[in-house]
Design goal:
The structure is a homotetramer. By secondary structure, chain A is an alpha/beta fold. Chain A is built from six helices and seven strands.
Chain lengths: 228, 228, 228, 228
């Protein structure tokens, strides 16, 4: 049995992964603003510094096998024709960067000593295809945060390798969360086949299964039918 | 004669570029915390939201030919053996991301309508070799911000192209600023040959000289003798 | 039971993967110059056009679930201080590019109609960390071929998606093949911990297990202790 | 006055650059199959090994300031809906890789000692946007060769730095050569604004003007209006 902190565990990818880990008899510390349906809920808004602090406080000095940062936010109207950079308020830019980029850095820093106690600790960060070179989407804050996350992961691998902690970024296309399926159904997103959640779970299981001698650092997972 | 906003104009790369542009008879709005020795000084701490706001206020609705974001900060002890991720205070992470990543996004957004009035407007962002894939340095916040800047530039190109504004990131190794030369002289940095400032100026002159039909989006400039 | 063509199946990564697939009761068509110890041996030197042709001839119109291109060659003295670009004969450059880059393109082309008959066909290409941006090694032909392979994979994904075929490149550091372990033991390579073969096999199993709706396109697998 | 070998000098980008260099009073050794209208013509088909050999023979031990590899070929029907990977004959794949990738490696190797005699020698390689990560076009051989060229450039920088030779790849979108303008005029290519040749020349002038202490390694030059 391993112990994982799963951030964004109330729904979407984080919710599905948390449920999968609980079904595998792992111990899940489920971080989210709204109640998480499984594991031990840690209520926190990780877009706020006191939210991150409360997560660190709740985890305490408990050894951890993994930090899975699976949350993420984006601009209003993102990935639709309604997004316009010039109309995005400054507060939105700040919030997207705080949640998607600053929070995982702060959590990795605050939990590094917990992770260092595990025999084979992993940090898993949910990136995006739009965080990769020449694959940006027009959403400036979200794209900047997802590129930034790639950099954070590389730097974390350099900084935390001596503690036996490796970091992987998983970069999927659109995943079949309830929200994405709704967006496709109501025409907000163009018709497409999102990535089945089972494939995302396989990806994370794979990343967690690799031995301590190797570090999967990046996995890109495209949609076969992205619908454009 | 063109009009440029140069951020970080009091010293370093920004100072040298501002001086060069003034010598070429351009009009320079020189943004910095401490007095800028040339151009029209706009006093602002762009790591603070009210600092960015005061820049926008000072520029007003004046047409701009370019926004040159040439400032940047990094962690205490960065690029030396003294840097340790776990010892970097959270305030430092927040400040590095605010100055290096959030500020250029906010300035680009706030000045886009000024730039759209020029016949061939350019945004020039000072990146870094450590913002490129597989070239990260261990400094987590700085690396994350520099990767993020690449993403911001790609997204800005997508979002601002209809307004006739293109964005380029210049990614140099260590540049021969007074600070870097001092760091080499006193052994803080290993012995090396930093990039001559004249080469950085040539790079920016090149980027500004390209016609409206083309957009140099990325220029990498390595040190021939990086000293390691 | 699935049917796989495994190229480079006589030893190293190809040999280990072929054995694993046979143990999982899959049908393996084992391509190599020297006899392959398992599966159905197809004798071929894929660095020669008639070698590729003989593979295509042997496979015939048999449906295939996967093409696993796991072979590769490099310059004499590669990855040691003995390699010098100016001393590498032209024939070596030609041969490295023929085996590492031209052969997988030709095999993908020649076997595409076989793969299109499978419900979820995958092409797996063995890349290298040194095929990624800013991670080149000085071996010019090998690095060029490994970068080229990334490009081939991207283009294959664009060209073969309508046929239901997806392509993934696996980019590992040094893998614990018999040759690499010998090179470490005798000091040809610096002391290091190579990637366990079991982790490479897990990576390929993962890539093959993803559903048809998703395509893992790139997996990077670093050594935790690369020895430098 | 400097001495440059310009490959592909009979027309297109190579022809325009050769003419520009001659106008600047430089000495140009113009390599092409058909007669080059300026400089000293070296007749050679660099897609053949004896073609490369004849270039090396003609240059002899003459010191060189630069090797500008500005030629390139692609598949029949490339960049139009007529291209189909499965219909591209093997000979075409071989030829595209030979001209676009193998030839520049062989020329760089064969001319390195000539370049090492110059005070500040540069190799300039004509890449392509489609040689960059996540920017592939479906043309498999061309994309593979252009990615490969990026890798060759990185490895050349590692291998030839001790000789004082640096290598830069210029990655443009469609350039306004006579062929491209014809393709747009007759509808083979969609309506678009190609990159003015003057901007490509500025890019090469910039790359050649940087001091020996710095090495521009990569310049990306997008079309502002790519027409899709």
């Amino acid at each position: 049995m391993s112990v994982f902190v799963v951030v964004g565990a109330s729904r979407g990818i984080g919710g599905a992964v948390a449920q999968h880990l609980v079904e595998q008899d792992h111990d899940v510390l489920a971080v989210s603003r709204t109640p998480a349906p499984m594991g031990t809920w840690i209520q926190a808004d990780i877009g706020r510094m006191d939210g991150v602090a409360s997560v660190l406080n709740e985890v305490g000095d408990r050894p951890l096998d993994g930090l899975l940062f699976l949350g993420g936010i984006w601009e209003t109207g993102a990935f639709t024709p309604h997004y316009r950079f010039l109309d995005s308020p400054i507060e939105e830019t700040l919030q997207v960067i705080a949640v998607n980029l600053t929070a995982p850095i702060q959590l990795a820093q605050g939990l590094a000593r917990n992770l260092a106690q595990a025999p084979n600790a992993r940090i898993v960060l949910m990136g995006s295809m739009s965080g990769l070179p020449n694959a940006a989407s027009p959403e400036v804050a979200n794209t900047a945060s997802k590129f930034g996350l790639q950099g954070a992961a590389e730097a974390l691998n350099l900084s935390l390798a001596p503690m036996g902690i490796s970091t992987v970024v998983v970069n999927p296309g659109n995943v079949a969360t309830a929200e994405v399926e709704q967006d496709i159904a109501d025409g907000t997103f163009p018709d497409q086949v999102p990535i089945p959640m089972a494939d995302v779970i396989k990806t994370i299981d794979y990343a967690l299964s690799v031995s301590r001698a190797a570090a999967p650092t990046s996995v890109s997972l495209q949609q076969t039918n992205p619908g454009h």
